[in-house]
């Protein structure tokens, strides 16, 4: 997918992740109406940001992966940003075939080209498993794409974390082939960022010159640096990127204004 850009300004990308929508609009997750918080996040971005060039959705669109959940996701996203292209990768709670049936043109196009930038979209899911992995086919795709585009700056996206974020309970579900993935990236000097969802929290680190980032969920937030499951009291949010034609990337986290959501913060799981 090649998207037109305005060369007079940086490319704008909005990342949203881990919406966990259900079969009904009344569905809740630990007391939080996930559809209401998703709409709150979209409305915040609509007011706060300039129109993005791309919306990047990094998995767990659905908590109950039925067609109705994906249809309502499309309805709310396209209502808020009717002219903006978007791409979606699956999370461990999604069913890729159901996603593709609802929005086939938006499900894993693999590569998005935005001027001097490439966004590579990987599927780190394993059917019926919580943890992630990158297959030999996915790793081969990364290698060939980077090899054939040495003049492009690359962002690599997946759902699961390829590095530990410091939460023992969820780090057991990270990408199993993370060592092979990082070894592969060391062969190239045009990878700027590895980006994911899954962990419901903001996270940033750098490994061998590559930035690694996770982003908040549009619903509940997991407490950072927790050995066991714990919820944070931070509000739902998104991540915003601006990519310039000199290979520079800037990013920030945005969260909605404080809401009195009826979240069960005492829960020990979800």
Describe the structure.
Helix 1 (34-48) packs parallel to helix 2. This protein has helices at residues 34-48, 67-80, 96-102, 136-148, 168-171, 178-185, and strands at 2-3, 11-16, 28-29, 32-33, 54-58, 86-89, 111-114, 117-121, 153-157, 191-196, 203-207, 210-214, 221-222, 231-232, 237-243, 249-255. A hairpin with a 2-residue loop joins strand 7 and strand 8. It is globular. The strands form four sheets. The protein has a seven-stranded mixed β-sheet, covered by helices on one side. Strands 6-5-2-15-16 form a five-stranded mixed β-sheet, covered by helices on one side. Strands 3-4 form a two-stranded antiparallel sheet. The chain is α/β, with parallel strands linked by helices and 270 residues long. The longest helix is centred in the N-terminal third of the chain and has 15 residues, at 34-48. The chain contains six helices and 16 strands. Helix content is 23%, strand content 26%. The model has no long low-confidence stretch (mean pLDDT 94).
């Amino acid at each position: 997918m090649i998207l037109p850009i305005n060369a007079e300004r940086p490319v704008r990308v909005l990342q949203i992740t881990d919406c966990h929508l259900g079969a009904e609009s009344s569905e809740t997750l630990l007391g939080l109406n996930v559809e209401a918080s998703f709409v709150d996040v979209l409305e915040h971005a609509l007011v706060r940001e300039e129109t993005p060039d791309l919306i990047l959705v990094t998995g767990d669109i659905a908590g109950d992966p039925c067609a109705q959940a994906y249809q309502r996701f499309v309805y709310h996203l396209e209502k808020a940003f009717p002219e903006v292209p978007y791409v979606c990768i699956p999370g461990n709670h999604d069913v890729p075939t159901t996603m593709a049936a609802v929005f086939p043109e938006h499900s894993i196009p693999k590569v998005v080209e935005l001027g001097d930038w490439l966004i590579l979209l990987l599927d780190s899911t394993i059917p019926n498993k919580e943890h992630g992995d990158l297959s030999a086919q996915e790793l081969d795709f990364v290698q060939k794409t980077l090899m054939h585009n040495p003049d492009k700056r690359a962002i690599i996206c997946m759902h699961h974390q390829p590095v530990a974020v410091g939460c023992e309970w969820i780090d057991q579900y990270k990408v199993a082939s993370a060592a092979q993935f990082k070894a592969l990236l060391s062969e190239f000097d045009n990878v700027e960022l590895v980006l994911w969802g899954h962990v419901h929290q903001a996270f940033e680190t750098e490994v061998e010159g590559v930035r690694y980032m996770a982003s908040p969920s549009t619903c509940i937030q997991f407490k950072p640096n927790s050995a066991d499951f714990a919820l944070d009291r931070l509000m739902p949010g998104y991540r915003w990127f601006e990519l310039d034609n000199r290979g520079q990337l800037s990013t920030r986290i945005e969260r909605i204004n404080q809401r009195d959501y009826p979240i069960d913060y005492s829960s020990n799981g979800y």
